[in-house]
Amino acid sequence: MLFQSTVPQFIKMLTNLNAILDKAAIHAETKKFDVEVLLNSRLAPDQFNFIRQIQIACDTAKLGCSRLTGKEAPTHADTEKTLPELKARIESTVTYLQKFTDADFADSATRKITHARWGDEYLTGEDFVQHHALPNLYFHITTAYSILRHNGVEIGKKDYLGKMPFKK
Amino acid sequence: MLFQSTVPQFIKMLTNLNAILDKAAIHAETKKFDVEVLLNSRLAPDQFNFIRQIQIACDTAKLGCSRLTGKEAPTHADTEKTLPELKARIESTVTYLQKFTDADFADSATRKITHARWGDEYLTGEDFVQHHALPNLYFHITTAYSILRHNGVEIGKKDYLGKMPFKK
Predict the structure, then answer these.
(1) N or C: which terminus of chain B has fewer CB atoms within 10 Å of its end residue's CB?
(2) A60-107 tens-digit pLDDT
(3) Cα angle A18, B51, B131; round to 5
(4) How far apart are CA B150 and CA B157, in angstroms?
(5) Would you give the DSSP letter of residue B111?
């Protein structure tokens, strides 16, 4: 069950984010400015910039699934400076996520999720997904989206949400 | 199961949002400007303002649970203009959500969720929560948060996330 509420949705949201980056590139090209201006933008002087928002969104998905399953995650050095590097970061994260199966999450709901910052306290896997992983993922993707939106990139909520799995 | 991943989290996030509104009020008071300036702010000229973000966040929770359970939702006229009115809107939504029980969601996962805009297509309740209700709720709360953050209100991610249900 925790597989279903994490992996496919993380992949979907990161894929949407990757497409949003393409729209940022098009906007910069059209307006003839360096896209790295956008990548280094933020909404407040003491807020993480766009690059860092993307890195954290990726890590929320990557480390979230790693913690929930005990499967080791690839390391990323957080050195991205360009749009192609940021897109590669997202794609590498998606590739990692795509290897998970439902079976990897068999004991995730009751697994004790710990964190250096949490001392000797823990969250159950189920609480971790609901209170930490999902709200954090959406927070950083929406913040990245907002930085672009504020700077005139032509994106809308549909770019963020992606396709709905409609049935007939 | 869908009760657990919606109602308590919707209540928590709206309660966090309500506390964020109090911080906006304090900021306006300290800086001696009318808080309604913040309420009418937005990050892009064609984006919904702060008030509308709060209204949509509330409706995402309210109408989401109503659709998932078939239980009628109270109507709200979307006429809020002041901070106390916005807080009342949030509180009225929370009061509605608090009446739900696990049993109300017994058939929600497989329920067909329809929408005037979706024509004859539908989402299963499970897909609706994952692809629509949760991403939308977090989107509008984070956007409201970002509008305040951009305007100097002293809030951080902890205000958005709220308390973690840590265990020892």
Answers:
(1) C
(2) 999 999 999 999 999 999 999 999 999 999 999 999 999 999 999 999
(3) 35
(4) 14
(5) P
Which spans in chain B are helix H?
2-31, 35-39, 50-69, 83-98, 125-127, 134-150, 157-161
Q: In the structure encoding, which two tokens stand for residue B53, read together?
A: 């973000």
Which residue, chain included where needed, has tokens 């896209």?
A: A35
Q: Which of A1, A120, A149 sits opposite B44 (nearest CB)?
A: A149
Question: Inter-chain contact B132–A161, Cβ cutoff 8 Å?
Answer: yes
Tokens coding B168? 């020892």
Which residues from chain B sit within 8 angstroms of residue A131, using beta carbons?
9, 12, 161-162, 164-165
Rounded to two decimals, the pTM is 0.98
- State CA B26 to chain mean position distance: 21
Distance (Å, rounded) from C-alpha B126 to C-alpha B166? 27
